[in-house]
Amino acid sequence: MLDALRYEWTRLRTLRSTYWLIGSGLLAAAAIPVIFGFAGSDEPLNAEMTAVGINGGASFGIPFLAVFMAVIGIFATGHEYRHGTIQPTLTALPQRSRLILAKVLVVSTVTLVVTLASMALNAAVLLAFWGEVPSLLDDPLRSSLIGYPVYTLIYMLIGLGLGLLFRGVPSALVVIFLMPLIIENVISGLSIIPALDWLVPVVKFLPFTAGMLMMSIGGLDMGPGAPDYDFFGRLGSGVVFGTFAALILASAWTLFKKRDA
After folding, report:
1. Closest CA to 163 of 61, 64, 86
2. How far is C-alpha 246 from the chain's CA centre?
């Protein structure tokens, strides 16, 4: 297992794409509190603005850092197939479950470290503009901020699972962008139509929509005329998002053990 961990850590830190993606994610997330600062630093900073600022807009529907970390997750397995390195990798590390477990552990650790660093950077930006921020240890702000690293981690695991499931990069990238940005928005939009009101109970089970509720303060604004979706709470929504990730990763893991490289 130590050999698999060393291999994955070496692979991850020697790819230039890792640094480009992390750097881009940090900058994109930090842009949100910067915009907040220039646009409204003369107004008091409330808990909801603080949460959106520190999570880089993720709870507002623009999860920059989570998307970039999901791409790193896709590359963790997709690059192996794209560049034909999966065969020599399996020759050196034939225990397939150990290899995937090592990828999950290493990329998850990096994701959590980067997410916490992003939160600290974003909080510093808010502090620079306002001079003070609401207490981060009081609910609902505390619960929202705890939900953000978990959300980013689950998002990354979905990417890693998709890269392994499709055995490549392009298809996984299409799904990771298409599903939250288009498919779930279309379903939510159609549920407003009276003839399609049977979709209303489905919306709370949409994984990426549920994921945003892990960080939300005051619920999600689904637009004018939206029905009552009766969303799960923060924990229940996290279970929906986490279950979706677990299903993707478990399916990919099972197929990886059964099919040829």
Report:
1. 86
2. 14
In angstroms, rounded to a whole number, what is the distance separating the alpha carbons of residues 204 and 191? 11
Which of left, alpha, beta for 62 (phi over 0: left; psi -120 to 50: alpha)? Answer: beta
Chain center to CA of 177: 11
Nearest alpha-carbon partner for 64 in 12, 123, 22, 113: 22
- Angle formed by the axes of helices 64-82 and 141-166, to 10°? 20
Tokens of 71: 């791409």
Q: In which band, very low, low, confident or very high, does the pLDDT at 22 lie, cut at 50, 70 and 90?
A: very high
Under a CB-based contact definition with an 8 Å cutoff, are residues 151 and 119 in contact?
no
Tell me the CA distances in angstroms from 132 to 34, 208, 225, one per residue in order.
15, 32, 37
Length of the chain: 261
- For the residues of 67-88, what is the DSSP string, one character each? HHHHHHHHHHHHHHHHTT-HHH
Please say whether the beta carbons of 152 and 69 come within 8 A.
yes
Interatomic CA distance for residues 11 and 103, integer angstroms? 10
Q: Are 173 and 71 in contact (CB under 8 A)?
A: yes
**Least confident span in 16-25, 55-64, 203-212:** 55-64
The neighbour count for residue 195, using CB atoms within 10 Å, is 6
Cβ(58)–Cβ(31) below 8 Å: no
Distance CA 160, CA 242 (A): 14
Cβ contact 126:54 at 8 Å: yes
pLDDT band at 122 (very low <50, low <70, confident <90, very high): very high
